[in-house]
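Why do we care about 3D structure at all? Because function follows from shape, and shape follows, mostly, from sequence. That is the central idea of this module. The next example makes it concrete: a single protein chain, its amino acid sequence, and then its structure expressed as tokens.
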Amino acid sequence: MRSILAVAAVIALAAGCGGGKRLSRAEFSKQADAICSKYNAKIRALGQPGSVRALPRYVDRALPIARKGTEELRGLKPPKDEEKIASEWLDQNDSAVGALERLRDAARHADRTGIQAALSEAAAANRAANGFARQLGLRVCARG
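And the structure:
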């Protein structure tokens, strides 16, 4: 059950944070965390999958939210000197989403080995994304 709860956290993290002009560090942090808050709330509103059997439906409902959040985050323009870290952060969010797709597919086939591999991959991407988010000064986006 703890692994299922971790799925919700990873999806919420991947749901992340948008704008047009280059932002200061404080503006970037504020806007990114606001976007993460918005999409984390949408993910939480889905509830928790109660079993492995419920995972595919849950992930199918959560992935569009996560993708939309990441799309908004990609719309933000971080400070020039933090562009590389921001890109790495978003790439790790994308990796977490990919792992969740594999988790959904493994759960559909009751593939316990595939489920564990996907959970491990999602957790690793989540840890890396959280580290990059902290480097960027993000708080809400760094939890997950």
